[in-house]
Amino acid sequence: MDALLEAVKFNEKGLVGVIIQDYESKQVLMMAWMNRQALELTISEKRAWYFSRSRNKLWLKGETSGNIQKVRSIRLDCDGDAILLEVDQIGGACHTGYRSCFYRIEESGAWKEDGEKVFDADAVYKK
Amino acid sequence: MDALLEAVKFNEKGLVGVIIQDYESKQVLMMAWMNRQALELTISEKRAWYFSRSRNKLWLKGETSGNIQKVRSIRLDCDGDAILLEVDQIGGACHTGYRSCFYRIEESGAWKEDGEKVFDADAVYKK
Predict the structure, then answer these.
(1) Which ipTM did the prediction report?
(2) C-alpha A58: how far from its chain's center?
(3) Which of B72, B94, B104 to substitute to test the interface with A, most A CBs within 10 Å?
(4) Residues A58-76: pLDDT tens digits?
(5) Superfamily of domain A2-91
(6) Do B78 and A84 touch (CB under 8 A)?
(7) What is the bridge-based pairing of β-strands A16-22 and A82-89?
């Protein structure tokens, strides 16, 4: 495990960027950040843990919403500063209720929403 | 175009993270960074432009190698700080000669190479 972690280039904040992709559909679901501990937990538990930059703490994806990510593979890029997870995503990845966080697509110089809503964010997060 | 750019949250260095995915296979090819000008060029030319943090300059992907990325779609995530491109990738995306930069996969706590080499990096970059 030490050699594995040594190949990862955490940035000046101790974080590495993570791309999360659906294992079956290959849809890109979200981008997040991990610190060393989040990566260790993700490897050992095969559930996705991240580091929340806004809340400044470790975060088990799906802890509040139940939308857990079961990890199927973990990849590292050529220069060691980006990780790619393939996951089985329960429910939706996005806190807005969309399946993917990338629900806006560029059309003629503007963003248009075209994503798939899979849960009611207000109900899930008790807003 | 101004409203489109306003929705993008560039970080303290003026950059936004970009995930690049193959349009046909949906394979994630690389992660890179764009500044505002790179995003404007990418939208107008439908070829991927990035900002190189190591060389501190704009960078047309494929300028040296010929491995241009023709852009098929541009997506923005929920909080505006990550972009997803779908591209037609000529040759390989990775400077090492692999099709994807994510050619290392975790197996039993170590990284194992399993990617597909599609060009000779030494020949292409005249090392």
Answers:
(1) 0.95
(2) 13
(3) B104
(4) 999 999 999 999 999 999 9
(5) Phosphoribosyl-AMP cyclohydrolase (3.10.20.810)
(6) no
(7) parallel
